[in-house]
Amino acid sequence: MIDLAALSGLRAVATHGSVIAAAEATGFTPSAVSQQVKRLERQVGVPLLERVGRGVMLTSHGRHLVEAGEQVLADLERLEAEIQHRAGVVTGSVRLVAFSTAMRGLVAPVARRLLDEHPGLRLTLDEREPWDTVDLVAAGQCEVGIVHRWGGVTFAVPDHLATTRVADDVADLIVAADHPLASRDKVTPRDLLDVDWIATPEGTICRQWLHRMYDGTGRPPRIAHVSMEFESHLALVAAGLGVALVPRLGRAPLGPDLVAIDVYDPVPTRLVDALHRRTMADSPAVRAVLDALRAG
Amino acid sequence: MIDLAALSGLRAVATHGSVIAAAEATGFTPSAVSQQVKRLERQVGVPLLERVGRGVMLTSHGRHLVEAGEQVLADLERLEAEIQHRAGVVTGSVRLVAFSTAMRGLVAPVARRLLDEHPGLRLTLDEREPWDTVDLVAAGQCEVGIVHRWGGVTFAVPDHLATTRVADDVADLIVAADHPLASRDKVTPRDLLDVDWIATPEGTICRQWLHRMYDGTGRPPRIAHVSMEFESHLALVAAGLGVALVPRLGRAPLGPDLVAIDVYDPVPTRLVDALHRRTMADSPAVRAVLDALRAG
DNA sequence: CATTCCATGTAGTCTCGCTACATGATTGAT
DNA sequence: ATCAATCATGTAGCGAGACTACATGGAATG
User: Fold this and answer.
1) Does the beta-carbon distance from B45 to A69 stay under 8 Å?
2) Is the Cβ atom of A59 within 7 Å of strand C at any atom?
3) I want to staple A40 with a disulfide (CB 3.0 to 4.6 A). Which of A6, A186, A212, B55 is the partner?
4) Where in the sequence of chain B do the CATH 1.10.10.10 domains occur?
């Protein structure tokens, strides 16, 4: 009999291209993944992986096994969800991965109530950036992923994942109370050509969107300081080092030394989506989590 | 993730109707089967088995899980066979179950050569009566089963099993060398109305056929002695206690004190068939075993 | 040619699933 | 009504199997 856990290991090797990458994607050691593949090879009696250079490559049999095995794996997951759906029982383990502001602004308020309402539900939380999140959901490492994308800035989501809109998160311009713009009702990027920005690091989605917001002005934003966390942005703004664009989701109440100003034309909005595998669409547990997120 | 081994346990309970029967069908203890079901229930979070009286019954969810799970199990088995088929490698483990005369007359001569030709093949032999054999093959407890049926005496074979004719086994009348019939070239049941028979026990297929052979005579055969094994039949015949109908397959050479006489009208022929699950039709290992049996 | 990176062996540990046995529950018989 | 029989299921203990940590062996890179 083919061992499905081992098959998952081979699938991870196939999708990630190396034993080491597969190992860290599945949370095992490279040795464990290697042994899983060997176990599979012993079970079917056919070589599945071959060394090429200092890496590995799937044999044609290995590729075929993964392709067809994925179907079996999906069928099994769908079957489990279907049984629970028929029973109408919210039960089982849901691993949820979110980006940090969603974790504190969206997940945290909802999780407690969710667990109280459904005693059979086991919820496991983890914090990742959106790109990693997509991979984790796609590979079956977690059931629900929460990602954000600014309007227009998209990234690819595999076909076998479904998307649910969870929130529209608007960002405000945060300035110090004594800043010249502090008295303004609302501002547009053309008002912000000469301000110093406190921004997230190069390569982050928020940073990309800050640039895109300036598209109509013909100039790039002037980045003065960089920080990972929006909480730190607030501190830097309060210290008079510049202004920041901070989403409302998960934002702590502003102190008296800070002012939030609406931005328009365009309104900086990021879309917050929940991802799940379509095979889990019938799972009452996943559905309960999604419903709670949408309502919260 | 649903544990497929546990699912097999539940399936056995479903098909055999009780935990104990499922246990002896799968070769586990009742406690193990019970724990397998509990494990499954924990994984899907839905009760699958409920006590009724002093036995058990599947819940509707349990029945649905078995029904759909059987599909997954079959897909996985088919996938394994298909991979090996593509590779053209005779490998893996084949469990073969046969009735006793086939074991010594058919399997034994073939097994040695089979193992020598295919080093990757692991062959496990077991001896059972045909009814048990059908169950074992159907339930996935063995890959190949060898059964016999006399013409006309049939038994049900599930749809998902395939049948391969392996041999036509003719039985002769065995009499002591000093018996009045010993000089005859051939005999017909009408010549045997008053002989004492040495027969297999009530309920065996051979016994049923002995009765059916007498259908045209209007009389039942006179059973004098009963013995499980044809080897013993020969000894009893040699001792002058009666005559016996002994198949040629697996029959030891007759001593000088015994004579084999052809029977006609009807010729007592039993059909020897090999059974295998259709999901294993592509398995080179199963195919090699079947080919060898047919050739031998 | 040394260094680095990757995969894979090896030894040890730990978890998980099975067996053996005991218990609880229900039915049928005396 | 009681006792025996039968079935399922808990519990303790044991053994196999799967993973981790570490060491080894190739292959590419500078």
Assistant:
1) no
2) no
3) A6
4) 4-84
By C-alpha distance, which of B79, B99, B59, B58 is closest to B200? B99
The pair of three-digit structure tokens given for residue B171, joined into one six-digit string: 């039985």
pLDDT at position A139 = 77
Q: Which of B171, B188, B159, B180 is nearest to B240 (CA)?
A: B180
Question: What was the pLDDT predicted at B152?
Answer: 65
pLDDT (0 to 100) of residue A7: 97
CB-based contacts of A102, cutoff 8 Å, min separation 6? A146, A148, A249, A250, A272
Q: Is the dihedral of CA A39, A41, A44, A48 positive or negative?
A: positive
3-state secondary structure of A71: helix
Which bin fits B194, alpha (ψ -120 to 50), beta or left (φ > 0)?
A: alpha
Q: Which of B1, B45, B84 sits opposite A44 (nearest CB)?
A: B84
What CA–CA distances, in Å, run from A176 to A81, A206, A246, A251, B112?
Answer: 51, 21, 13, 16, 89
- Chain A nearest C-alpha distance from B6 (Å): 13
CATH of B4-84, picked from 3.40.50.720, 1.10.10.10, 2.40.110.10, 2.60.40.10, is: 1.10.10.10
- Return d(Cα B233, Cα B173) in angstroms, integer: 11
Beta strands, E only, A11-133: 49-52, 55-58, 92-98, 121-127
Q: What is the mean pLDDT of residues B78-105?
A: 87
d(CA A291, CA A283): 12
CA distance B156 to chain A (A): 27
Q: Which CATH class is domain A91-296?
A: alpha beta
Contact B139, B9 (CB under 8 A): no
| Bridge partners for B126 per DSSP | B97
- A4/B5 touch (CB, cutoff 8 Å), yes or no: no
pLDDT tens track for A233-253? 999 999 889 999 999 998 989
Residues of chain B with CATH 3.40.190.290: 91-296
